[in-house]
């Protein structure tokens, strides 16, 4: 499935892009997606994406999680914010995101990859060590949520 043009990663931006993620648990498992687009293609991470103009962080997280995974959530308060800057071989900024991860409550649905995700699923703490998980995601889950 080809994502709509406005959901593709912005390469060589003029300014940082604001993005959100949602940390969602169900039955002692966390919802993760395997990213389908650069800069993190093939890496498992918290589901989320870009904030649209006029959209709150919470609404953006709810929309993005639904688009990426088919899961309905209720987004809550921020638990982590960080920058993600990727440069090319000529040291030009290829991607620059400011990301705010929110705590979220599972409402309904079963994970199914959509939008820009290659895969989506409920991941146990034990399985984290066997997957290529984004280091910031791993740190967030282990330090903030004591998820192991």
Automatic annotation (TrEMBL):
Task: Please state every residue range assigned to the domain named Nudix hydrolase.
Answer: 15-145
Print the keywords alphabetically: Hydrolase
Against InterPro entries, the record matches this protein to: Nudix_hydrolase (IPR020476), NUDIX_hydrolase-like_dom_sf (IPR015797), NUDIX_hydrolase_CS (IPR020084), NUDIX_hydrolase_dom (IPR000086)
Q: What SUPFAM superfamilies does UniProt report for this protein, alphabetically?
A: Nudix (SSF55811)
Q: Name one GO molecular function term.
A: hydrolase activity
Q: Which Pfam families does the protein's record reference?
A: NUDIX (PF00293)
Keyword NADP found: no
Q: What family does this belong to? A: Belongs to the Nudix hydrolase family.
What name appears for this protein in its UniProt entry? Answer: ADP-ribose pyrophosphatase
Q: Which organism is it from?
A: Desulfobacter postgatei 2ac9
């Amino acid at each position: 499935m080809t994502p709509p043009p406005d959901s593709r990663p912005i390469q060589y931006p003029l300014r940082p892009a604001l993005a959100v993620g949602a940390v969602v648990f169900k039955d002692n498992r966390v919802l993760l997606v395997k990213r389908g687009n650069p800069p993190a293609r093939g890496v498992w991470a918290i589901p989320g994406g870009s904030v649209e103009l006029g959209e709150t962080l919470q609404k953006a997280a709810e929309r993005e999680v639904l688009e990426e995974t088919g899961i309905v959530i209720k987004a809550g308060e921020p638990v982590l914010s960080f920058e993600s800057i990727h440069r090319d071989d000529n040291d030009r900024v290829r991607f620059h995101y400011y990301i705010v991860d929110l705590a979220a409550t599972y409402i309904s649905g079963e994970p199914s990859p959509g939008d820009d995700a290659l895969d989506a699923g409920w991941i146990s703490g034990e399985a984290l060590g066997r997957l290529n998980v984004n280091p910031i995601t791993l740190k967030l889950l282990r330090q903030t949520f004591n998820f192991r």
